[in-house]
Amino acid sequence: MSGGLIGSDVPLADRFDLALVDLDGVAYRGHEPIDGAADGLTSARARGMRLVFVTNNASREPESVADQLTELGIPTRSGEVMTAAQAAAQLLRTRLEPGAKVLVVGGAGLVTAVRSAGFVVVESADDEPAAVAQGFAPDVGWAQLAEAAYAVERGAWHVASNLDLSLPTARGFAPGNGSLVGAVRNATGVVPDSAGKPSPTMYRMAVDRAGARETLVIGDRLDTDLAGARAGGYVGLHVLTGVSTARDDVLAAPTERPHLIGADLLSLLEPHPVPRRDADGWWACREVAARVVDGALDLGRATPGSPATQLDLVRAACAAAWDAVDSGGSLDPATVPELHVDAPAR
Q: Which region is the signal sequence (predicted)?
């Protein structure tokens, strides 16, 4: 699969039969809807695209996630939700026998997943657990983190549901599970194993469960969602409604680059142009173009235009920047501006 952007002459919902959709920052933000999410996903379903919601959040039961999506206008069954808690429980099974004790630090979703995998859930390091399973929950505090640290110090295997440092909420970005895992790691010096994105484990589980001809991964974070797509060999769509920005796309490391970029989930209903290089070294995407000269990004005479033109400029900038870096050149980040993409009026 190409290391750069790809195009699609037909709407993505017509090309891919399965979409693995992230939640926070993609389908919703905290408990608030994201503009275009419900319309984009329900219309994609109507075209025949199946959906599985794949989240690094391990605090909630799949039924709870499905209920929230349904309330936001995205009818969802619990079987269409794959959580990092389920992936963590599967990871535990690769080394532990059923009946092993596991100290769970996290919410109800992680507790249920670990128990369903056949393990005995304990709450204290003094119970001599074989492993610590750690996932995000808003009520995780010092006492639980301390028990986890005690257990890991005594040799328990530390498994994190994910390593996301931040969590998008309606009020802004809050500390994520990776920040809480960092407290245990700092106390013990032990690097945990992680079941969540960017490991492609959840994606593979979801594909195996659903079956698919061609799978599209949709996310808002380059370091988790899109890195997981690259690691698993799936096409990744970055939507600009969450953590990572268009500027982040331009500066992305090869292992975190998206294959497609859209303003929001309504981009599932549109074709996606691919930038082409001309004889003068410009990477053109419809009406705009970009190039890199002596390590500096040059956006030509591009002016703020329609949202579609803004998005095309992001695509052209990514193509120019990635080509320059991959060819052994350099790119000065100071020459890459913030590239704003307004919500399209559809």
A: none
